[in-house]
Amino acid sequence: MPLARRLSAEFLGTLWLVLGGCGSAVLAAGIPNVGIGYAGVSLAFGLTVLTGAYAFGHISGAHFNPAVSIGLAAGKRFPWNELLPYIIAQVLGAIVAAGILYLIASDKSGFQIAGFASNGFGDHSPSKYGVLACFVAEVVLTFFFLIVILGSTHRLAPAGFAPIAIGLCLTLIHLVSIPVTNTSVNPARSTGPALVLAIKSDSWALTQLWLFWLAPILGALLAGFFYTWLVGDEEPVPEKVVVDETVIVEKVEPLGEGSDE
């Protein structure tokens, strides 16, 4: 699949993830009596990954998350030299999604941007968790997210079920960690709302954004290296298929026909 098409799929998939997940938090979570609450937001993030993986997994691998791309590269499932364009496409998708969400939300009478689904620690943690707790939560939960992705997309895993496992895993992660950090495990997801919040209101989310890049990337790298050791049979992803010295197709190992943040 040409790189331009794969990047377009990553852009759209990340846009869908942020619009659906953060949109549920901004637009639907706090409505009195009928709001969806933490459980609904958790399910919304899981459903965006599940549906996005089935829609785009056969095109780009459906990463929708810089940490996932990095973890897959560490696990020898994705070429390192394509990380940068994938990450750029993912971050742009998240920023556009956050912009669309602001346009929708701000057209309501009495709208206040508040935290705009941004991730934070300390005073900006939903339950006021400190920086150490938030860092550990993001590293550990991203680690297990990548373990589920790598395991469910392994060549010996049941075919076609990976998006379900991955979507349910992301739902579980949100159920655990929304009170701690508002749940990132995805640097792109954190960047879009933080940028819009900084432009329209307050820059606190941008000043804390470092944690939501560093911790998920660290967790993903640990998972990629560990899972490769654990299964012991992964081979590096070939960048080209060559027949008679002529390149006939470019090839990227898809994320098991679908994955996510």
How would you classify the helix and strand content by structural class?
Answer: mainly alpha
C-alpha Rg, in Å? Answer: 18 Å
Shape: globular
CATH superfamily: Glycerol uptake facilitator protein
Features:
two-stranded antiparallel sheet, Glycerol uptake facilitator protein, single chain, mainly alpha
Can you walk me through this structure?
By secondary structure, this protein is mostly helical. The chain has one domain (3-250): Glycerol uptake facilitator protein, CATH 1.20.1080.10. The chain has helices spanning 3-28, 37-60, 66-74, 83-105, 131-152, 162-181, 187-200, 204-207, 211-231; strands at residues 240-243, 246-250. Strands 1-2 form a two-stranded antiparallel sheet. Helix 2 (37-60) crosses helix 6 (162-181) and helix 7 (187-200) runs antiparallel to helix 9. Residues 239-252 have low confidence and may be disordered.
Could you provide a short overview of the structure?
The chain has 261 residues and is mainly α. It has helices at 3-28, 37-60, 66-74, 83-105, 131-152, 162-181, 187-200, 204-207, 211-231, and strands at 240-243, 246-250.
